[in-house]
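SEQUENCE-TO-STRUCTURE ENTRY
===========================
What this section holds: a protein sequence and its matching fold, both as plain text.
Tokens: labelled as protein backbone structure tokens, with as many entries as the chain has residues.
Question of interest: how does this chain fold, as expressed in backbone structure tokens?
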Amino acid sequence: MKKYIILSLAALAMLTSTGCMDDYLNEPNPSDQGSLSPDALYSSKDNATAAMAGLLRVQRGQWSETSNTDAGGLYSFLFARSVKGSDIQLIGSHYNFDYTNDNREPTYRRTAFSWRFPYFMIARLNQFLEGVEKSEGISDSDKLDLMSQARALRGFYYFQLALEFNHAYKFDPQAAAPPVYTSIDLVGKPMGTLEELYKQITTDLEYAVQNGLSSRIDNSWVNKEVAAGMLANVYLSMENWPKAEEMAKIAYNNNVLGALHTITSYEPTGFDNYLDKEWLWSLPQTNDQSNYYWAAPHVFMHYGPGYNNGFLNSDFVAKFKSNDRRKEAIKVLSNTLPTTDPRYWTTTKFVFEFSSSMSVFRTPEFILVAAEAAYRQGNISEAQTILNEFKSTRYTGFVNESLTGTALLEEILLERRKELYAENGVEWFDAKRLQRGITRTGNHAILINLAPNDNKFILKIPQIEIDSNPNIDASVNNGK
């Protein structure tokens, strides 16, 4: 598998070549000579931690393989999914082909990036795991923590592959799925099944939750709670409701009000501070470590110094009640525009500056996962209580509700959309896992109607993999 050889050896070369250690890790170099051998890299906890810092930096930077704004790092996955939905809309510029839901052919950049970047990360994580496990200079307890972080990330990136290249888990667990590599493997594997892929994902993430620590350097690092959030979404996809609820509650420490701002301290604008108490996992930026005009969603959704091409759909805006504090971030761009103009509604939820940090997970997401999972298990009172506590932090003068049946479920799902629009691709994720489809209405520039399990929900296997891996041929895309 030529692709995988390139990724594995490129990562090794980066770690061992003279003078590039600082660039790779973006951390102080522990070697006086400016280079480290693979053995030296894992000779101590400090060195291994520096290696992990480098991996985390790759996620939030400008990925050099593509040099394209819409294929830069982890944030690129999340925003591409967001613009495929109905709640936000784009006018030209980057991600526009994702907005049209046509960016899925084998030779397209989106398809290649969505395959290559996760495997790029997985290859490095496999190296990291092997290096830490074999190290004679790292204590057993430190090994457990380091390996938990790496296995959480590996499970997370395998989950990204599952989401991008397959339909919902329950649609067909035996469907062909991206192959699994758990070691530095230079031989290309054939496609596996979705069931096999999810088994690897859950195995990695369960290990991370069971063995990881809550303590960490800052919230750009993966700890036990972040791993639990990752796993909550996986179990949500698998419709394993008890496990989804259990993991979600670990993610936000099973304290709804403690995990959120109060109705008065909550700020509906300026989502750019990774130190915010509601941010669970982030991609922090600083002026001297910024990815500049690649930062999604900020550079697109903030109408100001960026691209000025991300807007809110009029029918989505209509769903916000007058006492919803999140509505304070929704603005009319110009009264001279007709209400049918796609640019009519804009948002100040995100602020774009070179130092604007990007969130991956926020605690509200998992509070609402717990509410849905409780509902699915028939625990209606618990689901309503969780939802009421959440809404009390977002609606002024909120009075507890007593919803039942599908009305309660739909309210939970709507709150996910209103709370998390343009973040983490939640609307697309929910439509896909629930096999509901997506219908655009209102003032969208491009109206679409994706049926449940529409092939436009998935990407085709990229041509670069077909050309490089003798065990995967063009027939893998038949029917897609």
